[in-house]
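Q: Hi! Curious about what Fumarylacetoacetate hydrolase family protein looks like structurally. Here's the sequence.
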Amino acid sequence: MSNDLVSIAERLDQAILTATATPQLPKGSEIEAATGYAVQAHGIELRKARGERVIGVKMGLTSRAKMEQVGVDEVTWGRLTDTMRREEGGTLARADFIHPRAEPEVAFILGRRLTGEVSLAEAALAVEALAPAVEIIDSRYENFRFALGDVVADNSSSAAFFLGPRAKPDTDIANLGIVLSINGAPREIGSSAAILGHPLRALVAAARMTARAGHVLEPGDIVLAGAATAAVPLQVGMQVEARIQHLGRVGFSVV
Ligand code: 0L1
Ligand code: MG
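A: Let's find out. The predicted structure is below.
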């Protein structure tokens, strides 16, 4: 990888470590999605060198609401590491992030390896459990503004996540009601059908897209299917809760 791309990965990594936004890549020097994935992989190597472990992936921009919120219209993915996982029912320290937003997600926990071109049926068979989840996205770019390759380089904005209790893998997830509440009041309401028409399609896309980058989904991995609603900016004092019909709830407070 060129020195320029290494330095983008290092700049994004510093933005994470210092919770300080970095300027957008200058107009005309935005990177292609494929290059963005190489930069993302390098950023993850920097995290692994600090002892972090990859424990799954997140799919991004899998719903129209999300694509419209950020003006990018392609599905993306990023890696989840162990230090990004937070205790369900616990806290999220606002100061650890730049401009965090929360979004409700369906999570898959895999029971077997899944990679490459797979059918919906094969993807379903690989699922050991489902869970309600909240992803915290925190673009490392100023003003949450980016083009496709830039956001891919930035690990698809992924910053942290909360996972709720496990639900049975054969739960019908085609059209589940999803509510994201702040301080007990519903803020965003959606349906799992907004996630590529069916959240399992996000898992199929995860197997295919990660394989292209030489990344294999392994048993035990967590896959976030992507949000069904727009993301909500977080402030200190908020109690955040996601409820997904038949899957349950997951919540935390922002301190
Ligand atoms: O998880 C997501 O859908 C986010 C992907 C990146 C775009 C954003 O920062 O909202
Ligand atoms: Mg997300």
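A: A fun detail: The pocket of hexanedioic acid (ligand 1) is lined by residues 58, 60-61, 66, 70, 76, 135, 137, 139, 151, 156-157, 226-227 (CB under 6 Å).
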